[in-house]
């Protein structure tokens, strides 16, 4: 994760370059420029030698960019081609969408982000309006040049990026379009940032009270990417059937963006069927708010797969998480934080108290080098309930809990539900499965896990195709998640994928050496041509 104490320092470059006139030619490279493939002149053939006929790709560039509604128009930035002979017209997005508009799926067109791209302007924490919606049609591909490039959906505005199981929307890098990535590529651009008006903690202003309109934060340090408020039902729109590839650009030190960053996002926001692939930081990091993501596929990410902070209170269901193959890299499946700071509004017991609930998850751990030293890290004033989960971590510890506030008994005044709960969770761990620190011993962590009904550490996986439940998993006793939280859907199995007939992950995802989701899914290294 990009730690909370670095949040104030990240993304300043994005705003400095938001107005192109403020940046030199070397500061922002317009996607497609400098990488346009121009065919070399064909040499005169030797007499008697036939001229070779190139194999054409299946995509030819459009003659012009679509005419979208509103004053902010698309800009034709030349032709961009891959190594398979496909060529597209590169249509650059404006730096800010000021009216509701739609990016259509158009033959021979890809859309590029020329730096930070804003959807609307910040309407403030106390606002109730919704001004600009960016609609993105199924099958659209948007790419970013390497660097501090990201999409920011500001408070009081929305994104409506809704793909289909066969036509996902893809956010990726320019190198992916050119065909210059492989299964170890990462960290090429910033990602997608959603900014909402739901409650948060750890306010920028030291005197601001958490959970009020005065409490707001700047997303991972980005100047002007503000979030926070009091509306836990706030909507930042919808993202469904979406891939986010090769994100997590490093700005300085440990300051990075994730693949997807919902910040102060409320329950009116719909996030489902989202894959984050090969982020150099977290797959998804949720800062406060109360959104309920569903059907997540997190593959090859280099820090934590799901990181939650600053008072997030929500549920996540159907989560498939796989660390990268052929590279001993990656940290934890979950990092659940509410660390204490030095201000009165960022202590471990400030409200709202974080409470993460996750149901029906499967995690495949391959790394032995993660800084958390465990498949799951829980610390500070955070509550956690896990139900119907599988943890495959044979070479690393499974559970680490830091800080006595995390393991104390329930306290209504502090919104503390008590010790973390592990219900119908099966784990395969290293010889040291439990870790603790800051007053918490490994023995305490063990006793908490073993108190969980239907949970076991004596799990030997029988998963097929890496993540599909087999006989062992089917025999495990599940718990109805709806008894934990009414926002959950009732299930009768443990893990993310019930059996071979359960194919919610297929088609809209992309394949890599890390994980294959079947022939209906394309390769992460390729851009779809239909």
From TrEMBL:
Q: Where is the signal peptide?
A: 1-18
Signal is among the record's keywords: yes
Q: Where is this region: Disordered?
A: 34-59
Q: Which UniProt keywords apply?
A: Signal
Q: Where is the composition biased (Pro residues)?
A: 40-55
PROSITE patterns for the chain: PROKAR_LIPOPROTEIN
PANTHER family in the record, alphabetically? LIPL48, SECRETED PROTEIN
Q: What is this protein called?
A: Lipoprotein
């Amino acid at each position: 994760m990009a730690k909370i104490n670095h949040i104030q320092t990240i993304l300043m470059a994005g705003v400095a370059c938001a107005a192109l006139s403020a940046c030199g030619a070397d500061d922002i490279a317009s996607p497609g420029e400098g990488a346009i493939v121009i065919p070399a002149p064909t040499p005169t053939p030797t007499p008697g030698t036939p001229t070779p006929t190139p194999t054409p790709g299946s995509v030819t560039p459009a003659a012009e960019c679509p005419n979208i509604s509103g004053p902010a128009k698309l800009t034709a930035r030349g032709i961009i081609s891959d190594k398979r002979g496909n060529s597209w017209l590169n249509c650059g997005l404006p730096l800010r969408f000021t009216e509701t508009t739609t990016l259509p799926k158009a033959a021979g067109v890809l859309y590029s982000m020329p730096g930070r791209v804003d959807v609307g302007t910040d309407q403030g924490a106390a606002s109730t309006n919704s001004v600009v919606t960016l609609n993105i049609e199924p099958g659209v591909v948007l790419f970013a040049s390497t660097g501090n490039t990201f999409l920011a959906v500001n408070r009081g505005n929305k994104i409506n990026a809704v793909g289909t199981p066969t036509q996902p929307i893809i956010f990726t890098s320019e190198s992916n379009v050119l065909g210059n990535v492989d299964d170890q590529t990462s960290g090429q651009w910033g990602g997608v940032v959603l900014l909402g008006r739901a409650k948060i903690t750890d306010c920028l202003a030291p005197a601001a009270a958490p959970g009020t309109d005065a409490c707001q934060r700047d997303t991972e340090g980005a100047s002007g990417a503000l979030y926070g408020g009091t509306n836990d039902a706030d909507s930042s729109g919808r993202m469904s059937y979406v891939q986010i590839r090769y994100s997590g650009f490093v700005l300085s030190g440990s300051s990075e963006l994730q693949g997807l960053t919902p910040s102060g996002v409320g329950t009116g926001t719909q996030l489902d069927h989202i894959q984050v692939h090969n982020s150099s930081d977290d797959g998804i990091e949720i800062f406060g708010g109360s959104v309920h993501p569903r059907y997540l596929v997190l593959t090859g990410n280099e820090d934590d797969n799901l990181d939650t902070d600053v008072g997030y209170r929500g549920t996540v269901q159907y989560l498939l998480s796989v660390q990268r193959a052929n590279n001993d890299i990656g940290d934890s499946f979950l990092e659940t934080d509410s660390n204490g700071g030095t201000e009165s509004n960022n202590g471990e017991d400030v409200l709202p108290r974080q409470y993460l609930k996750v149901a029906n998850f499967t995690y495949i751990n391959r790394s032995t080098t993660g800084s958390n030293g465990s498949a799951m890290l829980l610390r500070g004033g955070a509550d956690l309930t896990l139900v119907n989960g599988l943890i495959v971590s044979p070479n690393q510890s499974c559970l680490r809990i830091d800080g006595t506030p995390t393991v104390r008994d329930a306290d209504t005044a502090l919104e503390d539900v008590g010790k973390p709960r592990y219900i119908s969770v099966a784990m395969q761990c290293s010889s040291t499965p439990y870790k603790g620190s800051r007053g918490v011993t490994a023995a305490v962590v063990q006793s908490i896990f073993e108190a969980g009904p239907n949970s076991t550490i004596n799990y030997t996986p029988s998963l097929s195709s890496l993540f599909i439940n087999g006989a062992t998993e089917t025999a495990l006793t599940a718990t109805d998640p709806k008894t934990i939280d009414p926002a959950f859907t009732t299930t009768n199995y443990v893990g993310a994928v019930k059996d071979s007939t359960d194919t919610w992950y297929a088609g809209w995802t992309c394949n890599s050496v890390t994980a294959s989701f079947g022939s209906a899914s394309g390769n992460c290294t390729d851009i779809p041509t239909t």
